[in-house]
Amino acid sequence: MGILEYAFFQNALMGCLLASILCGIVGTYIVTRRLVFISGGITHASFGGIGLGVCLGFNPVLSAMVFAVVSACGVQWVSTRGRIREDSAIALFWTLGMSVGIICCFLTPGFMPDLPSYLFGSVLTIGTPDLILLSLVTAVVVLFFASLWRTVVAVSFDPVFARSRRLPVGLIEYVMMVIIAVTIVSTLRLVGVVLAISLLTVPQMTANLFTYDYRRMMMLSILFGAVYSVIGLTIAYWINVPSGASIIFVSIVGYGLCRLLLSCCRCAAVSLLLLTVMMLSGCSSKKNTASTRWWQSFNTRYNVYFNGSQAFIEGAQEKESSSVDDYTTLLPLYQVGNKNNRDIGKAKFDVAILKAEKAIKLHSIKRRPEWNKSRRKTAKDIEWLGRREYNPFMWKAWLLLGKSQFQKGSFDEAAATFSYMSRLYSTQPSISGIANAWLVRSYAEQDWLYEADDVITRQRRDTIHYRAVADWDYALTDYYLHASDYANAAKSLRRVIRHERRRLLKARQWFLMGQLLTQLGNPSAAYDAYRHVVRLNPPYQLAFNARIAQTEVMASSNSKKMISRLRRMAASDNNKDYLDQVYYAIGNIHLSRKDTLNAIAAYEKGVAKATRSGIEKGVLLLTLGNIYWQRESYSDARRCYGEAIGLLDRDRPDYDVLSHRSQVLDELVPHTDAIHLQDSLQSLVAMPEAERNAAIDRVIDALKKKEKEERRRQQTLEAEQQEGIQSAMSGTGQRTPKPFAAPSAAKGESGVWYFYNPMAVSQGKTLFQQQWGRRENIDDWQRVNRTVLKMDSDDTASSSDVSSSDVSSSDDSLSISPSDSLSSTPYTRDYYIAQLPFTPEQKEASDAVIMDALYNSGVIFKDKLDNLPLAEKQFSRLLNHYPQWQRADETLYHLFLLYSRQNAPDRASECVSLLERHYPESQWTQLLTDPHFVENARFGVHIEDSLYAATYQAFKDDRHDDVLANALISETRFPQGANRAKVIFIKGMTLLNSGDASGCTAEMQQVVEKYPDSEVTPIAGMILKGVHEGRRLHGGKFDIGNLWTRRTTISTAATDSAVSDTLSVERQLPYVFILAFNPAEVTSNKLLFAIGKYNFTHFMVRSFDMRIEETEGSARLVVSGFLNYDEAAQYARRISSDKDMTTRLQGCRRLVVSEANMPLLGTRYSYDDYDRFFIRTLAPVKVSTESLLNLPETIVVAESPDDIDSSDESDYQQESESPDESDTFDFDEDFYR
User: Fold this and answer.
1) Comparing 125-134, 849-858, 884-893, which segment has the lowest mean pLDDT?
2) What is the pLDDT of residues 40-98, one digit of tens each?
3) Which one, out of 23, 778, 915, 1171, has a CA that is 20 to 30 A from the CA of 760?
4) CA pair distance 360, 354, nearest whole angstrom
5) Rounded to an integer, what distance in angstroms lies between the CA atom of residue 228 and that of residue 258?
6) For 225-269, how does the pLDDT look when each residue is reduced to its tens digit (9 = 90+)?
7) Do 362 and 1211 meet the contact criterion of CB atoms below 8 Å apart?
8) Starting from the edge strand earliest in sequence, which strands make up the sheet with 1071-1077, in order?
């Protein structure tokens, strides 16, 4: 190795190594970004700089570097900013540089001995300055890539995505073009201008044969470049040729050899694989040998399971990134715990479920191995032989199936899967421990806490396997959260946070930790938990809510500082969409300090500043409404409750209270507002004219100011919405839609339908909820009050649909029509003066409105709000100030009841005396003076119930006289009884059975008009509807309380003989199995779980769908998926012969019904009607003896191996036999982790 003693060769060798590092780093970027052509242009353009340097007497390297940098930036600028295509710009600078270099070389006097070294490279020309230049450039490039590694990689692979993440893409591109230019010039002495581009591409091409990873590709490029350079440099020295040509030639030969080697390896691998497949073709799942277990495990993992796991991962990522949490309540541990997030990723989880089921079906090994060893069985051998599943990878498929069902939101199916998995792997503690942990989670998400506690108790009897510890930490946390055991939940949640590796989920868990610690009264620890959330840099909404929560937990110790911080947050433009939450937090701090007025002001400001109509605003309105409710400001409470009820979910624990209060206030507030309005109008009449005019002017000014502010706010909101739509459309490549051009706007340029655009759908839902609130998907959803009975399209609704509040709201003012008033605009005095009650007639009408409103509001205060002082105030004013009130006797009756509830017998007796003195003939006087009044007050409910029961039994026994006598007693003694509507209905049916159809119609009309909310009203309404349509009534007995005889459609001419003519008797139709039950006696969730568990464990090749259908007063579980009557009948017999299921199905009625007959069941024909039809027509038919439910729905013919595409998924199962092998082999332990 004497050649290494020469200094020039040492310099050349050092230059090769430095150039390999530099070109390996920069070349990887060039190849990844596909900038090879641009790099070639810069390389040849640098020749112009060499010529200029030689001609003008400068250092050619420095002039070439300047010319190359200018050319690189010029190409980048012209191709992005100018109107020249990129390839044209490259050709322009390429030819410009070469022409300038050639011209300068010819104009240079004398001969240029260094020209070949610049063109082709030479080892003799590499000197110390070149090494210093290479070292400096290499050091700068390494530091640049090390500091901006993620940014450079992002720009390399996808500049558009990097730009969307607000990365400096333009700056990075210009800097990289400069680095490419400097790199090319730095390596000119080594390989020359002509061949410099090859050193930046060939090593990278070679590395790309072995890897696609950016980092590994860069490292291999440096390695290959160094090897090629050293070999090429040595060859160039020995045969005396230019080093550049030698290095590039060696590089290309090396690339060819590597490619040839890989091709040979692939051929050998394919041959080996084919040989292995041929050897393992006899490894059927029906055998249980070492080779079959290995082959089925291998096939499970890398075939069907792999695709299912990828689908599960994609679904989990989609759910993680797209889920929206409700930060106003305690966060669920899993995002699927929020029902609004359950449909996210559903399609991916369905794919995962399908693949897992396929893997279980094709690769499960149930057959026990043969014991042919002479030694005695050990405990491990006994455990091995006692297993129920011998595919060592199959437990992963079961776990994937259950987890996919869990993430999909099908918790009952997941519970059945994990329960079966726990029993299947009961001899393997690690697997059964994991299955039990997921079983607890499935139970907890359904609030089946007793079942979950039972599993936990059984698991704690044994030691939890170390592989299942993490799963049990998650399971216990979820269980404690649903059990409201926040102390233990916080302890186990800390362990969960240590297990969690995903940043977003860890941030959610820290937020949940803060909520738990707040509930436990530890504000400082909660503050630290929320600080962990912010440190993890989560999405903005999560970080914002964490900062809001920080201010609330520390409000008690430093409220002024927290309020100042919140006001600074409100002033930030980043939080303009979250101002409702900011002011809600400020109001909470004021409320914690007992400063109710400032709290109300903050809440009202939050409502006014809110730009979103979501749960956060709903909670704000609910809190504000509760304050107004406590302060007895019912008009403001009604406003808040009315808007909040459309923004909050029905499953909130306080939703029922909110709904009740909102309904009561909808009745009360029109009356209180009417009183306030009429009092104000009468006060204005009593004022002097000057004061009256001034008061009216103040009202007009306030109205103008309010409408001006509302107009400005509406314009701002519309502008922001339009701007958001435009930005969304431009971001998705769609044009801005024109107003009222729904079809074209919905599709846009890309042809995407409106409902396939998530942005457009989300905006549509938001606008709908802003206008209508959260409405159920039912018929006539726009109508608030739906009539029970509608005779025809021209008839008006019955009077029962018009409540007293509706009447009062229409009469609560003395509004005069525009034609009668002096002015129809509310901006003039005449508009208001025209409504003032100046004349005696107008004063009388105003007093009538006040009297009616006082009475109705007093009744509501007494009966629905239990606010007895306010009720007494309303009734007392009514009696003392308005002696002309026509219903004074009824008012005294209500005062009597009020004083009785207040335990004031003297004042109650005074009311009775007033009734006897002034209203002796009133029904209320007779009621209070009835000798049975005290008895009715104590035992009236029981007496009336007994009377109704006796009347009902008499009706069933055809004792018509007893029915009519009891109806008369009910009318005289219990006119306001709870069972009054039922008694009238039974009386009507009795009259019908006695031949008095007109009397029946009159009684049904009374039920509909007076008792619209009774359970018999819909039946009475349908009877009347049939009569008005010209149908003839027929008498008959039925059981009101028996759901098996109910029909929702009243048959006016059908008899039992017509059933067989109407219901289908076709057997070769899809059938269903029905379990009908009373929801008050049978729990639907437990029934669904029991049937699902039974189906899952007894029918391995069939999958049946289940659903719960609820009707008024009854429910039914429908099991579908039967191809014909024989299959459904076999299913019914099998489930009826199972003793355990017979016990579980007590209280359920079992039916086999075709899908064609399903619409008639319970509507036109009752369950009893269908039973008679079934016994007469289908029951005598002989059912097939073949076990149809053990056969798949469709027969799949396996393809031959020659017909199977190797690129597709190999989901077939080899059935050929092969002899057992004595040598056993399996994967190592890491394979199953």
Assistant:
1) 125-134
2) 677 677 766 777 666 766 667 667 777 777 777 777 776 666 566 666 766 767 677 76
3) 778
4) 10
5) 13
6) 888 888 887 887 787 777 777 788 888 888 888 888 888 887 777
7) yes
8) 1105-1111, 1114-1122, 1071-1077, 1148-1154
Three-class secondary structure assignment of 843-905: HHHHHHHHHHHHHHHHHHHHHCCCCHHHHHHHHHHHHHHCCCCCCHHHHHHHHHHHHHHCCCH
Dist CA 600 CA 275 (whole Å): 80
Please give the pLDDT value at position 805. Answer: 39
Helix (H, G, I), strand (E, B) or coil at 209: coil
For residues 156 and 978, give the distance between their C-alpha atoms in angstroms, rounded to a whole number.
78
- Residues 627 and 1137: their CA atoms lie apart, in Å, by 60
Residues 6+ apart with CB under 8 A from 616: 327, 328, 578, 580, 581, 584
Phi/psi at 495 (5° precision): -70, -35
How many helical (H) and strand (E) elements, i.e. helices and strands, does the chain have? Answer: 52, 4
Do the Cβ atoms of 986 and 951 come closer than 8 Å?
Answer: yes
From residue 132, give the alpha-carbon distance in Å to each of 68, 122, 127, 352, 897: 19, 17, 9, 58, 105
Split at pLDDT 50, 70, 90, the class of 415 is very high
- Cα distance between residue 4 and residue 1069, in whole Å: 91
According to DSSP, the β-strands at 1148-1154 and 1114-1122 are unpaired
Q: Which of 346, 365, 211, 218 is nearest to 289 (CA)?
A: 365
pLDDT band at 490 (very low <50, low <70, confident <90, very high): very high
Closest to 339 in 3D by CA, of 325, 349, 329, 327: 325
Contact between 46 and 71 under an 8 Å Cβ cutoff? The reply is: yes
Question: What are 991's two structure tokens?
Answer: 């009259």
Residue 607 has pLDDT above 50, yes or no: yes
The DSSP code sequence of 132-161 is HHHHHHHHHHHHHHHHTHHHHHHHHH-HHH
**Percent of the chain having pLDDT more than 90?**
11
Q: How many residues does the chain have?
A: 1233
H-helix or E-strand spanning residue 1120: strand 1114-1122
Query: Tell me, what amino acid is at 81?
Result: R
The yes-or-no verdict on residue 419 having pLDDT over 80 is yes
Q: How confident is the model at residue 995 (pLDDT cuts 50, 70, 90)?
A: confident
Please determine, for residue 793, whether its predicted confidence score (pLDDT) is greater than 60.
no
Rg (CA), the chain: 43
Indicate the pLDDT class of residue 1058, thresholds 50, 70 and 90.
very low
Q: Which residue has the tokens 């699927």?
A: 336
Name the token pair of 604.
């009202």
Distances (CA, A) of 299 to 1023, 1201, 1206: 66, 15, 14
Instruction: Give me 835's structure tokens.
Output: 């409504």
Q: What is this structure's pTM?
A: 0.54
Q: Measured between alpha carbons, how far is 272 from 268 in angstroms, rounded to an integer?
A: 6
Answer for the pair 247, 233: CB distance below 8 angstroms, yes or no.
Answer: yes
Q: Collapse the DSSP code of 1214 into the 3-class scheme (helix H, G, I; strand E, B; otherwise coil) and give the result.
A: coil
Residues contacting residue 975 through CB under 8 Å, at least 6 positions apart: 923
Per-residue pLDDT of 108-125, as tens digits, reads 665 455 556 566 556 556
**Residue 968 is encoded by which pair of tokens?**
């008369």
**Cα(596)–Cα(435) distance, integer angstroms:** 52
Q: Alpha-carbon distance 15 to 130, whole Å?
A: 8
pLDDT at 1152: 92
What is the torsion angle, in degrees rounded to the nearest 10, for the CA atoms of residue 612, residue 618, residue 623 and residue 624? 60
**Two tokens, residue 481:** 């959260």
In whole angstroms, how far apart are CA 181 and each of 62, 126, 250, 547, 720?
12, 19, 24, 48, 47
With helix as H, strand as E and coil as C, how does 289-311 read? Answer: CHHHHHHHHHHHHHHHHHHHHHH
